[in-house]
Each structure stands twice: as structure tokens, then as C-alpha cells.
Amino acid sequence: MLRPALSFAAARAAARRPAAAAPALDAAAGAFALSLRGRPQPRRRGVSRLLSSPVPDDQSSTARSRAPFASPRGAYDDAIPNMDGSAEVGLAGGLWSSLGLLTELTDVLARPTSDRRGLGFTAGPTPVQKMAIPAVLGGYIPYDAAVEERKRSGSSALAEADPGRNVAFAAATGSGKTMAYLLPIVQMLKSDEILSLSLSSEQAARLRRPRRPRAIVLAPTRELAQQILSVLKQVGHAAKISCESLVGGENYGKQRKRLESRPVDVIVATPGRLVKHMEAGNVYLGSVRHVVVDEFDTMLEQGFQADLGTVLHPLLYQKKIVKPGEIQRLSLVEGAPQVILTTATMTNAVRRLLDDPAIEPKKQYGVDSDPNKPVNIVLPKDIRVLTAPGLHRAVPRLRQTFVDVGNADKLTLLNDIVSGSGGA
Hints:
By secondary structure, the chain is of the alpha/beta class. The protein contains 16 helices and eleven strands. It has helices at 8-36, 45-52, 61-65, 92-97, 103-110, 127-137, 145-153, 177-196, 201-205, 222-239, 252-261, 271-279, 296-301, 305-317, 348-353, 410-420; strands at 69-70, 158-159, 167-170, 215-218, 243-246, 266-269, 290-293, 332-333, 338-343, 384-387, 399-400. A seven-stranded parallel sheet has the order 5-6-4-7-9-3-10.
């Protein structure tokens, strides 16, 4: 997934770095071997002999295993625009527009970084973005002031789930998943603002208010949340979308004051800190129209299920607690937000929550589970699942080398190789 910390250009350079760093790794290994000669290193004697001796000319299995290799040139790479050859590079504006994006966004995307307003996506969208952006935009429901009023009053009726509205897409890290959901969300928020022009001044004023975001993006780590926020600020600048971050490790009081000081459209948060602000009454989610759970596989691995349920269940079902016996009877409430999930791997835990029929339900050991014990997280039914062609495949741009270290100290060797290559 695209994770630019400073700029999109820097992120792209980082994506190309593994192929360029391989010679440095080889050079570091050779330098390490030379440094071992003439010094008593009993623990590394096998490593020194391995790295300092030339690779034999024969075709033995040992020689072949030490030869660098890379994936075939034709291997699919989800991070490369126009990988499917569907359009010519250089027509970036048209490529982005073909996904259903507005001109205000496509112009900024297609401009080079030399332009102060440009984001530098001059080659067009990646395969993942071509797949996901139209799907997310297809789940847009125009802003309805009457529905929003019923939600605020707690009188929303139950609604049938739209099988195409909620989306989960899986693709490798670095393939552009962040932009794949941020771009359509920014566009849908702006569309709501345009529609609000036909409303009364009182109704229009309810659209953008302090402490009441219209979209939330949940990330498993503070670092990832900050990277998402930096991308959102660049994209949202042209659309005049305001955003804030709520992550652990930052001053809680300052976060509260920022939420109160001005209208906020999008909040990027870690689950724990968002729940803390919710419970303290610093943020209200009644106006949320879109919820993104980024790196959903990592969320599950790190144990955020309960926090995710605390955020999602009131929005989707108007229930703070969901019991096992209620799962089959759950229905989305009127005006429930669109749910967007992203994942880099389709683990069994992810597929089970997405109701994949190929995955058996989780086994229960011992006596039957407590029927009154709350369920951590229940996702909407019929989530549309999109899978990128390059999922669970080796990245073609990555050059790989195996080093047989025998009985040597592997961690010490790895540390010396990495430090010798400057961390590249």
C-alpha cells in the first residue's frame, strides 16, 4: 500500500529501492567476509569461510542456492500502473477520470510534482486502484437530511443490506490501497456538500460540525495512521477537506481541543484512542457516512477486535453489545455507513469474518460458549470482496539472495550485512 511519509515521489523511490539495494547487500557481505580474515572469530569461522570463498563454477545444488535470483520479468506487479497494458502511459488525466473521479481530483493527481499543486501520479492508477475506486464509489448513497435526522433521534428503521455497497479489497503492501479508498471518500464527501446547497441553512449547517466527523479511517499503528493522514492532507487540500488524527502517544488534551476548534470531516485514528475519545464525549460518530478499517489482517492479529466492535456495532446495528444468538437476526439500520476493509493477506481469520464458505467456523473447545458473552465484532453481510492479481505472490522487483550460514551466528551476520549496506 502506498505509504508516503513526506511525499508521493519519496514513496515511489522507496518502492523501487529493494532492487537497487541488492548490489549493496552483496558488497556488504563481501566486505564483512574480508573484515573477518586475519582475526580470531571462532563463532564466525564458518561464516567467514562461506562468504570469503568464491562461488564454485560447477552446477552443484550448493552453488545454485547461493546465486541471486529474481522473479520472471513478466510476473504481475500490482504496484505498477498500466500493468495490464490497457492504456498508454502519459494520459494520466484520462486514466484517472475513467474511474469516475471528478476533474478537480484528476487534475491534481495527473500533475507532476514539479507543479506545486501536483501529486505526481503521471503514469495513472495502479491495477488495485482501477479495481477498488469504482467499487467504493458505487456504494455512494446521496446525502439525505431526513435520514440523518432520524439517525440522530434514534428512530432509524432497519434496512436491507446492499451487497455492492460495502467493500473489502486485498492487495500487497505498496500497491496503492491507501489512495484506492481515500480518493473516492474525498469525492463522496464533496458530493454531499454540493447536495447540501439545496437544503435549508439549518440543515446544511449540520453537515460539517466540530467533533462530528463524516468519515473515519482506522489503522493498527500510530505510524501508519500518520502516514495515511499525510496522504489525506495532500489529496484533501484541493477539495478543502479537513482531517485530524487521534493516535496514542500524542497529547490527549491537545487532540480534544483540535476536535472542538473547527469542523472535522475525516478522522484517522488508532482504535484504542478513538474509543477513549468516544467514551469521554469528545467525538460523536452519529454523522459518520464511511468507515475504513485499514490493514484489517493486522488489526485481527494485534487483538483490536473488541475496539472495532465498539466503534462499528452502534453505527451499523445501533447496538453497543451483540450476543451470539443475535448474529443471524442482525440487520443494518437506515443510514448505516459504508464499510471499507483493506488487507495485505487473506488469512483464515479475515476470511472467516467475511463469511467465506470455504472456511470452517472457529472450533469451540469444552462446553458451549456463554450465550451472554458479547461478540467482539460482526461485519455486515454480503461484503463485496475484491482480490488483486498479485496477492500472495513475490514482488517481481525484489532481487533475492540466499546465504547458507551453516552453524554460524545468524543474527550477528545479518546485523553486519545490514549495517554494512547502510540499512538499505
